[in-house]
Amino acid sequence: MSKIFVISAPSGAGKTTIVRNILSKLPEIEFSVSATTRKKRSFEIDGVDYFFLSDEEFKAKIEAKEFVEWETFYGYYYGTLKSFINSRLESGKSVLLEVDVKGALKIKKEYPEAVLIFILPPSVDELKRRLINRKTESEIDLQKRFERAEMEIDFQSHFEYKVVNNNLENAKEKVFNIFNKELMKEK
Ligand code: 5GP
Questions:
Q1: Which of 53, 77, 158, 168 could cross-link 57 (Cys pair, CB 3.0–4.6 Å)?
Q2: Is pTM beyond 0.70 here?
Q3: 67: domain CATH number?
């Protein structure tokens, strides 16, 4: 049986590493590639990490109702494509979405059986330190991400599972165990 897993976390909480670990260990899970208008980072691949679209292309997809949910933040659009998710579910695969907290709640409305997992940073200060060290954002974008992180942490009560990333290895294992437990339920 196919399942939908949603992982949310403030940026800098270690979510990407945790997601990569799941995808490498559980081949039956496919990453849901979102669309975005933000600029591609040097290590990202179009069609793999995101579908990088222009504002016009993104807006046309909103008009055509091609998104399950979409949000704008940091001045950019981000959205989950209906066609991507549904085609995977129809072929019996499970999907893993990495979206912001509001997107996660919208997914849950659309797909009530979705499993929501929230990754928490050990503290807001630690999160800021990680974001600064990552050196992928400008000063203005960093400031926006700090503010957003505080708002996102307030949303955690809506999630079925919460994992504090004190230690990346432990957090990876905890999330992996959640996936196994949920996948076992289906059998
Ligand atoms: P980043 O720019 O660091 O890749 O992502 C910024 C934020 O956008 C993260 O919180 C990420 O989870 C979220 N995000 C990525 N794709 C989507 C999406 O399709 N929908 C929503 N709502 N958020 C997304």
A1: 53
A2: yes
A3: 3.40.50.300
